[in-house]
Amino acid sequence: MRTQVGIVGAGPAGLMLSHLLHLQGISSVVLESRSRDYVEHRVRAGVLEQGSVDLLRATGLGDRLDREGLRHEGIELRFDGESHRVAMTELTGRAITVYGQQEVVKDLIAARLAAGGTILFSAEATRLSGLESPSPVVHYRYEGRDEELHCDFVVGCDGFHGVSRSAVPDGVLHTYERTYPFAWLGVLAAAAPAVDELIYAHHERGFALYSMRSPEISRLYLQVPADEDIADWPDERIWAELRTRLETVPGWSLNEGPILEKAITPLRSFVVEPMQWQRLYLAGDAVHIVPPTGAKGMNLALADVALLGDAFAAWYADGRTDLLDDYSRTALRRVWRAQQFSWWMTSMLHRLDADDPYEAKLQSSALRYLTTSPAYATSLAENYVGLPAV
Fold first, then answer.
1. Cα of 225 vs its chain's centroid, Å
2. pLDDT digits (tens, 9 = 90+) for 122-155
3. Which of 193, 296, 327, 350 is catalytic?
4. I need a labelling partner for 174 at 20 to 30 A (CA). Which of 14, 144, 202, 260 fits?
5. Separation of alpha carbons 334 and 26, rounded Å
6. Is residue 131 included in any domain, yes or no?
7. Which residue among the candidates 200, 210, 281, 327 is catalytic per the annotation?
8. CA 302 to mean position of chain CA atoms
9. Is 296 a catalytic residue?
10. Is 262 among the catalytic positions?
11. pLDDT tens-digit readout, 193-213
12. Which of 289, 287, 265 is nearest to 275 (CA)?
């Protein structure tokens, strides 16, 4: 098979890039190792920055988002038995929208298929070749056969464990990473949210986050040790711990309900430089991962491919190479801004060392300053809703 841009991975990054290329008259084929059902139902991020919302609307994907997305103009911080609101829209003029990653993926798949786009599900990319030539090849396994996708460029949107990044020769890429000594226990519950905006809670027993996916579904998280076993967390223990960490404000209580899903996810920071080599361009989790505290993962992936969409459009329309050449440098500015913000939020809100009371006092001081200083609060709000340009 032959196309102009071969895309490995049908997450938000790969699908959005395919959609952007289609709008510019550029052909693409998306290869996805998982089934369509799996991709459309895996629960991941749920917070869209203002820029991501603007991108979806500008490309014709805003209808269901506008109907079902939950616009939030602030977030709540809880610490020392107090509640404080950061009024993001008042401070920045922008907002966030809660709309699950799986919903973005559903919208993108529907749009690509309606336009006659090619997405091959259960098609596992096994290796890349010819990346230094004008016609690289993606080798993949599909319906029991070994197949080849020939293209002008390859874009790897296949996540941390995908084959794309490993196709780059040794010594070219530089890795920067940090592993945190804790994880998030996340649950999806059939319980109407008891709040209108996200709650970030700093507690002596660890961090907690109250989020939502719809008016009927809550998404909640607890900080737990990195080596924790989900089998040790029956539903009753989860709800008890959530009550302890979140019900610290008089007169407020959780809404509880059946837990639909639960899992433990380690926290890490990870960046690879550069994000391109020869005819291969990397985007999303294939080259950067952030702790979810700052809600940046999906937004960074969409920002990456927005750059690539413009760069490929310039190359195919006018033969311009400057945007492709500058892709990594330009994308990494936003990536590192998001890395710093996510690290800062994580360090300020999580219990880093349960035996260090000095550290806990520093965190409380930082949170109190944040909630009393308009300048400090504006910095958080600007980063959280997404900086227009970095």
1. 22
2. 999 999 999 999 999 999 999 999 999 999 999 9
3. 296
4. 14
5. 26
6. yes
7. 200
8. 9
9. yes
10. no
11. 999 999 999 999 999 999 998
12. 287
